Automatic annotation (TrEMBL):
Occurrences of domain Exocyst complex component EXOC6/Sec15 N-terminal (ranges): 54-223
GO biological process: Golgi to plasma membrane transport; intracellular protein transport; vesicle tethering involved in exocytosis
Protein known as: Exocyst complex component
Pfam families, sorted: EXOC6_Sec15_N (PF20651), Sec15_C (PF04091)
Domain of life: Eukaryota
The species this protein was found in: Coregonus suidteri
Taxonomic lineage: Eukaryota, Metazoa, Chordata, Craniata, Vertebrata
Entry keyword annotation includes Lyase: no
Function: Component of the exocyst complex involved in the docking of exocytic vesicles with fusion sites on the plasma membrane.
Single GO cellular component term: exocyst
Domain Exocyst complex subunit EXOC6/Sec15 C-terminal as annotated: residue spans: 413-771
Region (Disordered) residue spans: 239-266
Length: 814
């Protein structure tokens, strides 16, 4: 029962499922039937059979419904077919009409279609044209800007061209960058930039070459402006002061420049156009190149290149010409080139920002300054012309002042000028040495004759001579000094003027200038003039008269030294009482020269005495004397008398000079007598002389007596008593000993202060006695002694032995 119920339940469920599947098939698209049918086969094994049965039943049901529906509408369908057949004829007629109408419509529409297509084509063209215009309007600014770029390049406006390139790249080309010509433009712009860099660098090189050529002119202009300014200031100061010390206008070579045209010349120069570095050189290439490299972002490369090239040019400029020292123009060109170089650098420093820096210019200047100082030190050492050295100094001062105006330190240049000043003084000393030598050579070494008052004033205007006694004398009269004295004094003043010229414009105080003048004047007096005087005194042709005149001259020059000091004081207005004021050493100079002249007088007197002595021709074997003095000795005495009369011309206008002149004369006279005595003493004692007769001794005694008479005649006043005769005391005692033959007294009193023959040396007496005892000659006086008196011969031998013992005792004691 239960099984039957279960089967019934399954059957009902199966029927319900089949019904659902059929409904789903009927309501679903054919493409989706597959899954529905699969569910039929997924159920019980016989389910599809029951489904097929159910499907057949459903189909039969639908067929019956279709048949019912067709039966219901069949009459209406038949009626419709009948109506359709009736309409067929009308439809064919209508079809014909429609076909005809369509044909006519097609024929009419062909023209409209053609016109429409033309309109469409025109509209397309119009749209294309509008688009093209719009595109061209976008491209025209780019093309115009590129054309402008080309024009700027052709006109060398490179900085503007770079700005145009920048605008093209950043603004214009990006708007129309899809076009080919824009791409070509974009590709060309870097090349154009490189071209601009190359062109600007070429312009810079031309500029560097240009300023190298124009440096001389630039420096000359700058120095001329500074010199004009200095001259103008100097003239204004002189006009304001209205007075002051006026220095002579003569140069060292004696030429006198015009002095009255200074203001007119300055006015003419001031009217000239003042040129600057910008007027002489076009600086636009360096500005342009700097801007170009700045825009291109390569400024550092440009700066390094510019500085490197300028350093090279600086080294070239600092190389002097080999013969630069020969003329002042060589130095001027050298200074102009250097100055022009640094004027350009100063202008670049202030006109550009950072192209050159103050540190760079200072480095260049320090390098240049060391080189300049070395070059000037070397080349100035070759200069032997003081005029050239002075012009060099003026150039250096203007050069230094000009550079100082541009802010360059120039202290080392002024320090160099002090070195050159010493060299200048050396050249002056050499020149004045020639001047002094010429003056001494042309001097006649005789007192200056003055015929008229004008001549007298002319002399004292050149030399400060004052003598009351001479002024009282009537014309014509003579001044004690010779022509060289005023000439020397004038030349010393000229030397001071020349030395002063170098000290000007050195920015030194008058105290320092005063010290310089005094030191250089001292060198002139102590070295140059003193050397010239010493050489003059030593010259062979200078005789005793000339030496006496030289003593007189040096005395007056010595007195004039105080006037030279006053002369320097008037120039510098520095009081001589200032603590650090240098004194002139002229007093010692002229004293030394005077002492040298005095010594030369003594030497020449002795030489002259020697010349007379050489004329002596004694017959040492003569049996007896001639009874009168020898001729050579009388000539010598006459010469001495006339010579000592010359000493009366020595200056004695004061007690000091009188004492000095007397001392010189006395010393000369005493020296001459001593030298004469010594020379006479040497004659009989000559080692070549082997024998002497008593007659020769007597003749020699007569000559000595004449010498004693000359000494006692007071050839030079001022000797006390027989002081001058004591010069011959040795000879007198020796001759008295032999003439009197007083050997017993000599031997007995030897060594006692009161001895009559105190001045007779035993060795001298022995030498002379041995010459007299020789018996080889038949006229020897001792031959008779040996024949007539053997005892006396023994006595002589005894005296000789005693003299030898005295000589030996003296040698042992010494």
């Amino acid at each position: 029962m239960i099984t039957t119920n279960m089967a019934d339940n399954e059957t009902v469920e199966c029927i319900t499922e089949h019904e659902r599947i059929l409904q789903e098939i009927e309501s679903t698209d054919t493409a989706c039937v597959g899954p529905t049918l699969r569910s039929v086969y997924d159920d019980q094994p016989n389910a599809h059979k029951r489904f097929m049965e159910k499907l057949e039943v459903r189909i039969r049901n639908h067929d019956r419904e279709i048949e019912k529906m067709c039966n219901f509408h069949h009459q209406g369908f038949v009626d419709a077919i009948t109506e359709l057949l009736k309409v067929r004829a009308d439809a064919e007629k209508l079809m014909g009409q429609v076909t005809d109408t369509n044909r006519r419509l097609q024929d009419a529409g062909r023209e409209v279609t053609a016109q429409t297509e033309e309109v469409i084509r025109c509209r397309i063209q119009q749209r294309n044209m509008t688009t093209t215009v719009e595109r061209i309007q976008l491209c025209i600014p780019v093309l115009e800007m590129y054309s402008k770029l080309k024009e700027q390049l052709e006109s060398k406006r490179y900085y503007a061209a770079l700005k145009t390139m920048e605008q093209l790249e950043k603004v214009s080309i990006p708007r129309v960058g899809r076009y080919r010509f824009c791409q070509i433009m974009a590709e060309n712009l870097p090349k154009l930039r490189e071209d601009i860099k190359d062109i600007s660098m070429s312009d810079l090189k031309d500029f560097l070459e240009s300023i190298r050529k124009h440096s001389d002119r630039i420096g000359e202009t700058a120095m001329k402006q500074v010199q004009q300014h200095r001259t103008f200031n100097s003239v204004v100061q002189k006009q304001d002061s209205g007075m002051g010390f006026t220095k002579p206008g003569s140069s060292l070579n004696g030429q006198t420049p015009t002095q009255n045209n200074g203001l007119a010349a300055e006015e003419d120069q001031s009217e000239e156009e003042v040129l600057t570095a910008q007027d002489l050189v076009d600086f636009s290439p360096v500005y342009r190149c700097l801007h170009i490299y700045t825009v291109l972002g390569d400024r550092e490369t440009f700066e390094n290149y510019y500085r490197k090239q300028r350093k090279k040019q600086a080294r070239l400029v600092l190389q002097p010409q080999a013969n630069m020292h020969e003329t002042v123009e060589g130095y001027r060109r050298y200074f102009n080139q250097i100055l022009g170089f640094f004027v350009v650098e100063d202008h670049i420093l202030h006109a550009t920002q950072g192209l050159v820096t103050r540190a760079f210019t200072d480095e260049l200047w320090n390098m240049a300054l060391s080189k300049i100082i070395a070059v000037l030190r070397t080349h100035s050492s070759y200069c032997s012309d003081p005029d050239l050295v002075l012009e060099l100094k003026n150039l250096i001062v203007i050069f230094a002042d000009t550079l100082q105006g541009y802010g360059f330190p120039v202290n080392r240049l002024f320090d160099l000028l002090f070195e050159i000043r010493d060299q200048y003084n050396e050249t002056l000393l050499k020149k004045w040495a020639l001047v002094f030598r010429e003056i001494f050579e042309l001097d006649n070494y005789s007192p200056i004759p003055v015929e008229t008052e004008e001549e007298y004033k002319s002399v004292i205007s050149r030399f400060p001579f004052h003598d009351a006694e001479i002024e009282k004398q009537a014309f014509p009269k003579k001044l004690p000094m010779s022509q060289s004295v005023p000439q020397i004094y004038v030349q010393v003043k000229e030397f001071i003027y020349a030395s002063l010229k170098f000290s000007e414009s050195l920015h030194r105080s008058w105290t320092e200038i005063d010290d310089m003048l005094r030191k250089s004047t001292n060198l002139l007096l102590t070295r140059t003039l003193s050397g010239c005087l010493q050489n003059l005194i030593k010259k062979p042709h200078i005789g005793l008269t000339e030496l006496v005149q030289i003593i007189i001259n040096t005395t007056h020059l010595e007195q004039a030294c105080k006037y030279l000091e006053d002369f320097i004081t008037n120039i510098t207005n520095v009081s001589p009482e200032t603590v650090h004021t240098t004194r002139l050493y002229g007093l010692s100079t002229f004293k030394d020269a005077r002492h040298a002249a005095e010594g030369e007088i003594y030497t020449k007197l002795n030489q002259k005495i020697d010349e007379f002595i050489q004329l002596a021709d004694y017959d040492w074997g003569m049996p007896e004397s001639d009874g009168q003095a020898s001729g050579y000795l009388m000539d010598l005495i006459n010469f001495l008398r006339s010579t000592f009369q010359v000493f009366t011309h020595l200056p004695n206008n004061s007690n000091d000079h009188a004492a000095m002149s007397g001392k010189v004369a006395q010393t000369a006279c005493m020296s001459a007598c001593k030298h004469l005595s010594t020379s006479l003493m040497q004659m009989p004692l000559d080692s070549e002389l082997k024998q002497i007769s008593m007659g020769a001794i007597q003749q020699f005694n007569l000559d000595v007596i004449q010498c004693e008479l000359f000494a006692s005649s007071e050839p030079v006043p001022g000797f006390q008593g027989d002081t001058l005769q004591l010069a011959f005391i040795d000879l007198r005692q020796l001759l008295d000993l032999f003439m009197v033959w007083d050997w017993s007294t000599y031997l007995a009193d030897y060594g006692q202060p009161t001895s009559k023959y105190l001045r007779v040396n035993p060795s001298t007496a022995l030498a002379l006695l041995e010459k007299m005892k020789d018996t080889s000659k038949k006229n020897n006086i001792f031959s008779q002694f040996r024949k007539n008196d053997r005892d006396k011969q023994k006595l002589i031998e005894t005296v000789v032995k005693q003299l030898r013992s005295l000589v030996n005792g003296m040698s042992q004691h010494s």
